[in-house]
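My current task is to audit a protein record that another person submitted. I need someone to confirm that the token line plausibly describes how this chain folds. Take the sequence as given and treat only the tokens as open to question. This is what I was given:
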Amino acid sequence: MSTQPVQEIIPRSPSNPDVSKVLGRFADLIDETVNFGSHVLKWHLESARGGDETAPITLSFRHILELLDAVSINIRNSSVDPSKLLLRGALESYFGVAYILEADTERRAMAFMSTYVNQRLKTYRKLDPTTQQGKEFRKLLKKDTVAASMVISIPTTVIQAAIANLESLVKKPAYKNAHDEYSRVKKANSKNPYWYSLYGGPTNIEKLADHLNMQAFYHILYRQWSSSTHGTDIIQGNISRSSTGQMEIHQIRLPKEPQVLTVIAVSIALKLFLLFIERYAPEKSTDYKSWYTKEIQATYLRLTKDKIIQIKI
């Protein structure tokens, strides 16, 4: 790497070794939690039975675990703010899998699968130049030279094969009920429904959180982080005034809020683990309690109480 960064904007080397050590301990806590999560996932895989309805359950767990693992990597390298985007995704996935496992599991899981397949079909049909949707989409591509080169590089035969595969999938008996419900709700609302809104479920993510009695998580965390995701929360915490009254932009990789984000990451993981152990491996409850007490309890509880890193901005 020949280009050197402007150190005041993005310092590649930590200016304070003590802060780096603390960030490393935060990341170690998340790593330990994710490591145990791999065992929980294994227990789930060993006991789960069924067909396509198991996919959103198993893969939601994997997705959350992967996002939390990425949070650890970010925090260890003092890339703290982007961790909010990862945690928002993990929280939304947790809402979804908690809703599926709460009740009527097979039907809710197939609602997820049917919605996923229908949304993929919608995308592929836009990419197929022989369909009406594809022809209309090609008109839009003329205004977007970057996307046009990407889409044109996909062979039409590949796109059509993917469409045929998905169309055959939704015709299978396991998908029929959920597919019919998806079509009914879409027709009634004239828009693509959220999977959890099928069969009279919550109509948006806020109502889903309310349904799960996780209103605080939604309003304090998920909703606040939406601004970061959509690029509108670019001011708060990123600028301040100097002693001379001048506006200053904070450096990238400033270790703001790593402690609270670590606590949130571990909290989401613990809720996820308990959810899956109760459902799929209740005999492992003792193992979970032993691990929690021995490996993370003291550190985790300390982080919920004592402020370890103080960043003045």
Notes: The longest helix spans residues 17-47. The CA atoms of residues 171 and 228 lie 39 Å apart. The beta strands are 239-241, 247-249.
